[in-house]
Specification:
This protein is mostly beta strands. The protein contains 3 helices and 8 strands; from the N terminus they run ααβββββαβββ. Strands 1, 2, 3, 4, 5, 6, 7 and 8 form an 8-stranded antiparallel β-sheet that branches.
């Protein structure tokens, strides 16, 4: 799929209002959007092709199910900020905070289709962050900023979405089987079918 040239100044960033909505709706609508990060004057751009929704403290797979902690504070709002954390002591994962202040919900970005200046594997949340150069220094970053944001794609066709259980949340009881992982049907960059 060809998106044509992308320049940060010409891309339409998602607004705070986009993120301040139902988490499942935001998760669906993030598919096909562009994750953009400017690094040393170069724009790294990837098309979001796989996400997982985490619905708040009642969702036993969400980090916020343990309440407000120094780690989860940013997830409680406001919407449109990055929640970045480390897993297994070495892989960063990036979530987009959703809904109103105090909700504790977010969408995990699981996979990107490379669009510009991404030469490494982008399948899976850890590889996605490595390719984009995202680490814990981006915790709480405003995704309405000029150097790190999500934008609308030139191709506005609504993708066919597949719904599956989230990955790695077996500990979450009945929440482990809920269909809260979404990906673009047939996309070769999805981390797992």
């Amino acid at each position: 799929m060809h998106f044509g040239p992308h320049r940060v100044g010409e891309m339409q960033k998602l607004t705070r209002e986009f993120y301040d909505r139902d988490t499942i709706q935001v998760a669906h609508e993030l598919l096909g959007k562009l994750l953009v990060r400017r690094v040393d004057g170069t724009d790294r751009i990837g098309r979001i092709v796989e996400v997982e929704a985490y619905l708040g403290p009642h969702d036993l797979a969400a980090h916020t199910s343990k309440g407000i902690t120094p780690r989860t504070k940013v997830m409680y709002g406001p919407p449109g900020y990055a929640y970045v954390y480390l897993i297994y002591g070495m892989h960063h994962c990036m979530n987009v905070v959703t809904e109103a202040d105090g909700t504790g919900a977010a969408v995990l970005l699981r996979a990107l289709e490379p669009v510009a200046n991404l030469s490494t594997n982008t399948k899976g949340p850890g590889r996605l962050c490595k390719a984009m150069g995202i680490d814990r220094s981006h915790y709480g970053h405003d995704l309405c900023s000029e150097d790190f944001f999500i934008a609308k794609a030139a191709d506005t066709t609504k993708p066919a979405i597949v719904e599956r259980p989230r990955i790695g949340v077996d500990y979450a009881g009945e929440w482990a089987g809920k269909l809260l992982r979404y990906y673009i049907e047939g996309n070769p960059y999805v981390s797992r079918k």
